[in-house]
Prior knowledge:
The chain is built from five helices and 57 strands.
Amino acid sequence: MAGTVTLTAGLLLTSPQPASAANLVKNPGFETAGGDGMPYCWERSGWGDNDFTFTTTADAHTGTKAMKVELTRRVDGDRKALITESAECAPTVATGKQYDLGLWYKSTTPDTSVTLFRHDTTAGWQYWTDLKTLDMAATWTKATVRTPEVPAGTDRITWGVSVYGTGSATTDDYTMEQVPDTLPPPACTGTAKECADGRWDVLPTKNPVRSMHSVVLNNGKVLLIAGSGNSEEQFKAGTFTSAVYDPATGTYKVIPTPKDMFCAGHVQLQDGRVLVISGNKAYPAADGSHGYEGFKDSYVFDPVTETYTKTNDLNDGHWYPSATILGNGDVISFGGLREDSTGSVTAELFSQREQQWQPLWKVHQTWSYWGLYPSMILMQDGRLFYSGSHVFGNNIPGTGSAIYDYDANTVTQVPGLQRKDERDQSASVLLPPAQDQRVLTLGGGNIDSNPDANRLTDVIDLKQPDPAYTPGPLLPQGTVDLGNGPQPETGGQGKMYVSAVLLPDGKVLETGGALHNRANPVYESSLYDPQSGTFDPVAADPEARGYHSSAFLLPDGRVMATGDNPGNGTWNHNVSIYTPPYLLKGPRPTITSLIDSEWTYGDTQRITVDRPIAKAELIRPAAVTHSSDPNQRFVDLPLSVDGNNVDLNVTSNPNLAPPGWYMLFAVDANGVPSVARWVHLQGPAALAATDASTHVHAFADAPSGKVTGPSARRASQPVSPTVSGCDRHYGSANVCVPTVFPPQVKPTTAARCSWLRQNHYGTLKVNGADDPLRLDRDRDGTACGRGDLTRR
């Protein structure tokens, strides 16, 4: 945070250099002296362990003065000369407007960035964003960049050049001008309701496989992984499937699949191939002797050949593992169930350089059990934020959320997550843009106790020194059928199995879900606006989307939704497509040329567009399952605009945009996006080649929660065979009779059997002699038969 310098008239050595009629910067050329050795309306700022000087130099672009900021030693942090954070000096801005910033500079270091702060009328001054990395320049060079739209509640901004590597940046002649409005109001091209709420269409062709994993490939196709598809019959037959869907033709291609990748982990590698982690070795035994088992195998799927290739083995089995790509291209994985059905406490690391899983002794271990599909989101400094979203049962001990530091090998608890043991199959997403470092967690339930799923949302700002979740707005309610026909939800009823999808206009679509463990689908969708912190209900997917469903963004800006696997073992093969309101607002901008699809960190990349745009961004393609996609992110690309030529400024920090293929969208002032173009963001080797470093900020640098380091080495964490919330005394392995029925169901045989009939369970064989739910009162081996309902 920049400091504040209080000035008095007596400190001014000459008359203040005013801002021109168009230029909003006062004293833009440093010609007017001020206090504390700085020019009028400018102040020193920065942080970290470094040696530095601020010099008003005669080596000016125009006039007699310029500002030189130099670092002679640096461990971390930055230094910058900023426009003074005061009502007198900081330029006034208007909500929703954009501003073109310009300056002249010379630089002896590649480690510089144009950095903005904004004044929130409630919260005060705070960091806003980094805009542009400046190339090294021995002679005076002009740099321009456009701000994002000014967020609501912001009345002033300040900015300057951060120096975060050894060397100097000398700057002069700053300018700031408001961008004029360029677009007419949007023209609705659908019905009034569609233009307000969007539209869902169910595709005529069904998904041929029981896929619960959806990965958008760098050719625009979608990999849909089923494995055995949660079907014990297919598992026993060795029938493991995947399919590749082509949105351009609406066709599917079934792909030979070498192993049961049911409930595996997955992530796109730097080159666009898909790393698939573990899967299902065995279904639970009816006698309770073991639960699901995870195998050690791992595979890579190639989008070009559409084939799987085996990697070396993991150190442990991981059924339901996490998978997070790091800023250096490595992949880290936690949690899941081992080959003996116990919980894995082994952290796994896949080396991008070596293209293989590292041996156990090379990987830092805390021997922590993170549960199943723990949502581990990469932070801007390389640490991982465990959001508290997970699958099955209770959360981890403590507060249910934490910051994991791989280098220090520590776990720090993060407070504030509401009802942390009822966030089973909630969704968490790094909000747009990734530079803001804010995470939204929404919905959830608990299959162990099976209450009504909740409406809770929580938001955390990881830019704060001591971050903590704060309550967000309640999820909008939809309709649900509890046996009396579709009815509006009431009270605190919300949903688990929820999907959250980042959209190119900067909003988040939340959709799908169910009220109870694999039952009672909720029909509701809404758009969350990170700027206003509000939900706007929109059209609901007409298809049930509960357990084993997923929704994800396509390159054309629409959203695809698949799956649903209720407790009776059936599967919904229908596929829905959501057309958001922004596609019904008139013509779309088009990226008419892309100079280069190979990008490196800190680059400036040029595109041409056919009409004015307000912003551009990279969106990492989806790799989603069970409400979880911790790698989903929206990375802002600040603009420098010259007519239809737009220069895009790429972050220098690979932790904000891990290496790989991204969808590039250009978006106009009405929020209408182009069709995406694919670009390949290179790994940190590009940084090493130019001796540059990342611009990491001092965010979340003083968390006060309980800190734990490595515990004693152990083999595993005990996990109940009923971890999935299913009582295996009844039916086959792919049928889930809940261990605890929803609260609306009375604890009687008649009420439970009535609920099972309403949910189409059919005839259920009793496995063994035990009948814990009292469904086989006449002991004929069949649950909920006529004799069971008449017997007292």
